[in-house]
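Now for our target.
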Amino acid sequence: MKRILSIALVLAASVVVAAQVRVSTPNIEMILKADQGSELQIQYFGEKLSDADLANLEAAGVPNHNAYPAYGFWCASEASLGVTHSDGNMSTVMRIESVSQSEEPTAKVTKIRLKDTVYPFYVTVCYRAYQDVDMIETWTEIENREKKPVTLTRFDSGYLPIRVGDVWINHLHGTWANEGLLVQEPVERGMRVIKNKDGARNSHTDHAEVMFSLDGKPQENAGRVIGAALCYSGNYELRIDTKDTDYHEFYAGINPDNSAYKLASKEVFKTPELALTFSDEGLSGASRNFHKWGRKYKLAHGDKLRKILLNSWEGVYFDINEPGMDQMMADIAYMGGELFVMDDGWFGEKYPRLTDNCALGDWKVDRNKLPNGIGWLVERADAHGINFGIWIEPEMTNSVSELYDAHPEWVIKAPEREVVKGRGGTQLVLDLGNPEVQDFVFSIVDDLMTENPKIDYIKWDANMPISNHGSQYLPEDKQSHLYIEYHRGFAAVCDRIRAKYPDVTIQACASGGGRANWGVLPWFDEFWVSDNTDALQRVYMQWGTSYFFPAIAMASHISATPNHTVFRTTSLKYRIDVAMSGRLGMEIQPRNMTQEERDLCRKAIAEYKEIRPVVQLGDIYRLVSPYDGHNMASMMYVSPEKSEAVFYWWKTETFYDDHLPRVKMAGLDPEKSYKIRELNRIDNEPLPYEGLSFTGKFLMENGLEMPLKHKVDYHKQDDWSSRVLYLVED
């Protein structure tokens, strides 16, 4: 085993003085210079070094940048840490006091304790290096030992210098109904900032994850890539600063805007983890690292296959009733589904939930809609041979609700100001920094599960940002703690829920994709990618989202046409093929489908069950990007043993006499032979290579020709074309 520390393998709780510290995973590592009494410096991050190369590293040229720069000296430079000490001094100078290393079951943790040269003020810079996946997490623990409080004005999780060259940044941007769009651009001189200030949700617009392509224009399966993901559910800020040096400087942490934090004497402030990875196999290689790490260590139940479900929302919206729910349960059971989820509209006594302007917080069944309650629905689901799930929005209330009538002091509201209302003209955000609110939010889930222990799935929504700054709970001198305390409260509630209900599946829905981030997913099994279920737009959104998140976490549903958001009409085959590239579900009223459509979905669900282990637990290889202007997109998943693979091909534009590129596959074993089978086939005759076998070498060097049209009866012709191929070792 390679040594983590260059001079010794240090066991739990031991302390050493070390010149170089190696923070290593199986294939990557970070090298730090850690001389006692000196500043902590980062020298290298990338592919794992040989002992000989490590010995000559400094001679080759290293950045020797401060690994956690503090504000106060060289003030023109960006800093990871900003502190106003109790005497008003705004300068901080940190030097190494000790280096320690401990072992976890599957990781090694290195902690480097820094102390200010004057004040009893400490920062411990921490690194967790996983021993079975290529991911390093870094965070800091900031401790005030001064007699009086200090004020933290910046508190990053981590810092990384990146050598200037032909470096490109890959990141995600969007808006409601258009989340997760891929942006690729060269890193230029100056400052590039990616941040969020939503307060409650943090991934509708920009994302707290980025990739840096180090060898010019990004490639999917070649080239060196650094990946970074801030694991935080709240406001964040990523900064790339390039001035007159040879290095881009990357900083990541909690967004400090309007969030100055008063750190009491003896209090420790822990920052969220920043996950870092490296791959020389392009963007897809970095994605595979994120997916393996995420499934194993972050995502709730990341090793368990997800059920195929029908959600009621686009099928009936607020028109919830017992016969309708029972009919939808029967229909999804007929098509082979495993779970039914009743969405918004099931609750409210004094203020019945007929639309989105009332009753949030009043989590009591509307007996006019459901006279026999939730229990009857659970029993009906059981009778149909499926599981039952339910929608809630626990962090929110309406000004028209029994909860708000009783507890107006529980909502986020600026002192001396009117409340700012959101969705429906009445929606408000509860103050999760308040322990009473935390107890209430926990009780929503606890009461539901206690009364109905067979509930299998909870769809947890959050449809409003924090729209005015003010806590009715926090004292006057800590109003700037609002955002941080909200997410501490959110974490505390989620911890309680998971401690008592570890097995229930929970989806993070936040007006669609507002909570697609690794700070949320330790408590959640999946997220809703977008409220926009249009298949064509989902190709683009799910493509971008796959950069950092595995298919098992991406809820992707078959919906009706014309689509309810963009009103586009796409073929059912196309909608199925797109949805099958994530966690397959349905968002439709089956009663409105023809028998032919129901049977096609039934066939698709049966075939998805065959490929589900490969899609949800396999390795991703993105092949042709929809963003590259080739009028098509293609990707595949390969099982870890390389014995099975699923290949996806979608046409994204239709032009007469179009000539699309032949797609070369990736990730297969060149020595193995794979038999080809098309899934969800609608053509009157099979593809010419149906049932034939090809070597992995041939498929990766040549690919297979994809017909641009489906061979169907004339009256069934349309301009949509897609293919899903299942490859099994022959």
Notes: Residues 1-16 have pLDDT under 50 and may be disordered. The chain is about 20% helix and 30% strand. The first strand starts at residue 14 and ends at 16. The chain has three domains: 14-298, 310-618, 621-729.
